[in-house]
Design a protein that fits this description.
Radius of gyration: 24 Å
CATH topology: Helix Hairpins
Helix content: 55-70%
Oligomer: single chain
CATH architecture: Orthogonal Bundle
Number of strands: 2
Number of helices: 2
Order of helices and strands: HEEH
Strand order of the largest sheet: 1-2
CATH class: Mainly Alpha
Strand content: 5-15%
Number of domains: 1
Low-confidence stretches: none
Length: 130
């Protein structure tokens, strides 16, 4: 079997690093989407509650009585807006990483197929030959 050239070895290392970065971004996005859904459910439930309802909010390891329902709703909405901006940033990062991933995958497949006739690198989430 032929040894891989240093260039191809470097591309494989970059490819693996890119996979890890993409997975990390996807995990962060998943977690933030879950937090956004929780915030949405919270605002819906608060919207159903009477104006004079007693609300406690978590601050660190403490539960503190909130001033009023409106202040809590406003705080949640601000946090939700911030979270939505973060998710959009992660979506842009995801797209950029996927584009780079595809380019590098194509380069590696060309380099490897020109070599010893090895199987191509499968797209993310698939195995070779699918």
């Amino acid at each position: 079997m032929n040894e891989l050239s240093p260039k191809v070895q470097n591309q494989i290392a970059q490819f693996q690093q890119l996979q890890q970065q993409l997975q990390a971004v996807l995990n962060q996005k998943f977690q933030m989407d879950a937090q956004l859904k929780e915030m949405q459910r919270t605002t819906e439930e608060l919207g159903k509650s009477p104006e004079d309802v007693v609300i406690y909010k978590s601050i660190g390891s403490l539960l503190i009585r909130a001033e009023n329902k409106e202040s809590v709703l406003k705080e949640i909405e601000e946090d939700k807006e911030t979270m939505e901006i973060r998710v959009k940033t992660l979506e842009r990062q995801e797209k950029s990483l996927k584009d780079r991933y595809q380019v590098l995958q194509d380069q590696l497949n060309k380099a490897l197929s020109a070599g010893a006739g090895t199987a191509p690198i499968a797209p993310m989430g698939r195995s070779p030959g699918e």
